[in-house]
Amino acid sequence: MTDEPARVLLPRDFFDRPVVDVAPDLLGRTLVRHTPDGPIELRLTEVEAYDGESDPGSHAYRGRTARNATMFGPPGHAYVYFIYGMWFSINLVCGPEGKASAVLLRAGEILTGTSLAAGRRPKARSTNELAKGPARLAAALDIDRSLDGTDVCTTGATPISILHGTPAPRDRVRNGPRTGVGGDGADHPWRYWIDGDPTVSPYRPHTPRRRTATAT
DNA sequence: CAGCGGATATTCT
DNA sequence: GAATATCCGCTGA
């Protein structure tokens, strides 16, 4: 007799909904990353929604490319991309096939496999920092482009799956502008997080990056 | 915590 | 060439 949350996979239907419905519903759920050295479990505390059809902030807004092809595929799969020349981020594809919407996983609390995650994040100074931010989350869970397209809803062997976990109470969920999104995409308050959770990343407004080192 | 600059793949111009 | 769904190391509170 325990308060152990049900260890049940989220069904594919969970992801086959409008992305703004799926995103807040993911908070509190458990992501399981099966590595060769053992499992790492993460409780999701912060996410952002991206809708390819209406959203200038979405990678898919300007159509399909080699990088974003997975976003156009069936729901319940991982879209992993490489950004800023050195980091990976993981999204979960939502909506029907062809719609190109996805939820960016921005932060979470490491539940098990903490030493494995810490080994991937040697610079982190506290356990709360291990997955505080999308690139940090991917690094802690050893996620890279080789996992792009992974089915997270299969009952078979898979490197990543999403368990039902314990959904965050709706009165603890907050939403606001997305971190680092500029232009017209800044209008959508599609960042969702669990209020007061110590693993949520600080909000950073969009700041256009300075020029690359000037060629001499 | 806030602010700053640097590192760099992918995409569009 | 320029922008982008970022993080790190530094400085200062």
Would you give an account of this structure?
The protein is α+β, with helices and mostly antiparallel strands and 216 residues long. The protein has a single domain, classed as Methylpurine-DNA glycosylase (MPG) (3-methyladenine DNA Glycosylase, Chain A, Roll). Helix content is 12%, strand content 27%. It contains 4 helices and 8 strands, in the order ααβββββααβββ. Strands 1, 2, 3, 4, 5, 6, 7 and 8 form an 8-stranded antiparallel sheet that branches. The longest helix has 8 residues, at 19-26. The protein is globular, with a radius of gyration of 17 Å. The N and C termini lie far apart (69 Å). The mean pLDDT is 92. It binds a DNA duplex (13 and 13 nucleotides) through strand 3, strand 4 and helix 4.
Strand and helix layout:
Elements: H1 12-15, H2 19-26, E1 30-35, E2 38-51, E3 78-83, E4 87-94, E5 101-112, H3 114-120, H4 134-140, E6 160-163, E7 173-176, E8 191-194
Antiparallel strand pairs: 1-2, 1-6, 2-5, 2-8, 3-4, 4-5, 7-8
The structure holds a DNA duplex (13 and 13 nucleotides).
Enzyme class: hydrolase
Protein name: Putative 3-methyladenine DNA glycosylase
Organism: Streptomyces albospinus
